[in-house]
Structure formats: C-alpha cells, structure tokens
Amino acid sequence: MPTLPEILGAVQTNCDISDAQHAGDYTLCTYLLKMREYYRWEHDLSYFATVPQDDLGVWLTAREQMWADLESLPMTPVPVDSGFADPFDSEAINRELVPRGYVYSAGYGRFNKPLFFLGNLLSCEERDGFTILCSSCEYARELAAPPAMLSGRTIFARQESARRFVWEKIDEWRWHKQDNAMQRALTSYGFRNDEAALEQMTSGALDLMILHELGEGLIDRSLGESWRVMVLELARSRAELVVRSVRDHLADCRSTLPGLLERNDHGLLHFYFANLDGLRRALFTDLQDAYKDWVQNANLAPLRRAVAHGATHWFDVAHRLLAAYKKNPVTARAEIEALLPEPARPH
Predict the structure, then answer these.
(1) pLDDT (mean) for 12-26
(2) Phi and psi of 114, rounded to 5°?
(3) What average pLDDT score do residues 333-344 get?
(4) What is the pLDDT of residues 33-77, one digit of tens each?
(5) What is the crossing angle of helices 181-189 and 195-233, to 10°?
(6) Least-confidence region, from 144-158, 223-237, 280-294
C-alpha cells in the first residue's frame, strides 16, 4: 500500500504542473492575491497573521522558477495498491483513500485548468442522489483551489478552501469598507475580526456552495454531455465565460437561491449577492434589482419572483445556446457572445 507521502508527492507535483501551465490565465492583481494566500497556506499562517513581504517576494521568485522547470512536463500517475492510477480517475483513487480517512479530487476549471487536491476526510453524506465528500485540512492543492466541485454524482466540498475564500472577501472589503452586500453579511454574522465568526461564515458559505453544486448536478441531466463538450471546446474564450455564467445562474435559480430563501438565512443571502459580480451580475440585472428592493423595503417577494423567472429564463437560454452550438460551433460563438453586456463585448 502506498504511503501518504508517496501519494501526496504525486498529487502536489500535478498541482504544480497545472499552476506552471496556467498561472498566466490570471490578471496581475488576481495572480498576486492568489499567490499571497497560497504562501499563507503553504506556511500554515493564520488569517489574522501578517504575511512577511520580503519572505513572500523570495518565495514568489523561487516558485516561478520551479514552474518554469515543470511547465512542459505531463501529469504524473498517482500511486495506488494496484500500481498507478490516472490522476483524473478520482473514483479509483478514492476507493483506496476514503476508507483511510482521506479524500482526493481531480477535474477541470475555468480555462480548462486541471484542478487537484488531497485532504483529510471530514464527512460523507448522501443528498438528493449525490455523494458529498467534505474535507478539512488540505495536504496538496493548486493555485485556484475551488471550495466545491461537482464530478459525476460526487460533490467535493473543501472546508479549508471555503475558509480561505471567505477570508479573501473579508480582506477585500476591509480595504474600502463600503456599505454593500458584504458589509451586510458581516453584520449578520457579527464579524469583529474573530475566529468564531469566521468559522460560522465558513460553514454557511460551504452550505451555499454545496447547494450550487447540487443545482449544477440536477441541471446536468437536462443539458447532458453535449454541454460539457461545448464548454471544453470554448475554453479560453469570452464565450466560455458566458456559458459558465448561464449555467451558474440556472443552478442558482433551481437550487442555491430557493434553498437560501426557504431557510430565510439573511446572512447567507447577503453573502451570495456580495459574490454576484462581474459578468454574472451584468447578465442578471433583474436579480440585483430585486435584491436592492429587499434591502430597501424588507420585501422578499420581488426576489422570489426574480428567482422563479430566472429558473425558466436561464433554462431556455442554455438550451438555445446548446442548440446553436450543435448546429454550427463556429457561428454559435457570435450568438453566445451576443449575451455580453455592450461595454464588455470584444471590439
């Protein structure tokens, strides 16, 4: 039986290769923020500890040099009892790791970036026909580190990555301290730079993310394999960002937002809208208007109507785009990109 250090070495190597090949996908600002938090994770620093800037600079230079040496390498197989497993065969690897108290996942993210992680198994549950594997401490990860990811009928929920995600949003708000959805979320949780409130927010955020992944799993039944193929073939284009946003809105209107509204969880609703930004926000202005109505008038009825309408609207949009892509993948890009708000359309 392979030891944990042997498995960990292979997984982290694949994480490093993925980062080496995709670090250029980020804007400079996003890249530097992610690297700072990656340094914090690798050096096991508390979120309330200051990152030493001189050490960070030295580490960053060394990391980029290491990536230069790894960029052209293929992904390495993961050692298992029977020999070696394909690094994307999460099911086979977890058959050995889950009984030992660990969890592993692999998949693809934005711009077709390979995503890997290995962590301590915190819990395992069945919900709505899906298996939810939740991890706590992460032993290996790459730069993106999504807090939750769907793979087949399994949802991988990562507590440590969710905590990091929440902290990044808090840290970002503290730079400007605007009167916005994030401030309302912090007020709802009584956040005062304390660990207890951070943990409470992390737990809520992870629940929100699981609801989203459940939504994606449910709509995948109707969108089918053709949607996944379309997203992969649109990788690294503006059209990819559009179809991902459409799918996100459909999942949220079918699962995430109905779940939050049913719970009447105001803190999580504010946190959801604090993270509704960029293209997703621009594509669904009716939802943002309904949120403002709730904030100003304490009336959830417009929000409920916007969610119900969105469930139908985004279903129709998704199937229209998929039909256009099946008919002609080349001309479909223009139809997909036509959904972009005017200022964001490419010239």
Answers:
(1) 95
(2) -65, 135
(3) 75
(4) 899 999 999 999 988 888 999 999 999 999 999 999 999 999 999
(5) 140
(6) 223-237
Q: How many CA atoms lie within 13 A of 329 on its CB side?
A: 10
Q: In the prediction, which pLDDT does 344 show?
A: 40
Nearby residues of 226 by Cβ (< 8 Å), 6 or more positions away: 322, 325, 326
Give the DSSP H or E segment for 8. Answer: helix 4-22
pLDDT over 70 (residue 260):
yes
Determine phi and psi for 328, rounding to 5 degrees. Answer: -160, 100
Burial class for 71, CB neighbours closer than 10 Å (0-12, 13-18, 19+)? middle
Q: Is 129 exposed, middle or buried (0-12, 13-18, 19+ CB in 10 A)?
A: exposed
Query: Could you tell me the two tokens for 276?
Result: 């509704």
Cα 271 to Cα 279: distance, rounded to the nearest angstrom:
17
CB-CB contact of 215 with 263 (8 Å): no
Q: pLDDT confidence of 342, banded at 50, 70, 90?
A: low
Query: How many residues in total does the chain contain?
Result: 347
**pTM score of the predicted model:** 0.90
Q: Can you give the residue ranges of every domain in the chain?
A: 4-163, 178-344
Please choose, from the candidates 133, 180, 140, the residue with its C-alpha nearest in 3D space to the C-alpha of residue 159. Answer: 133
- For residue 272, give Cα distances in angstroms to 126, 153, 158, 180, 277: 24, 24, 18, 12, 10
Compute CA distances 322 → 83, 215, 254, whole Å. Answer: 40, 18, 19
CA distance 227 to 233: 10
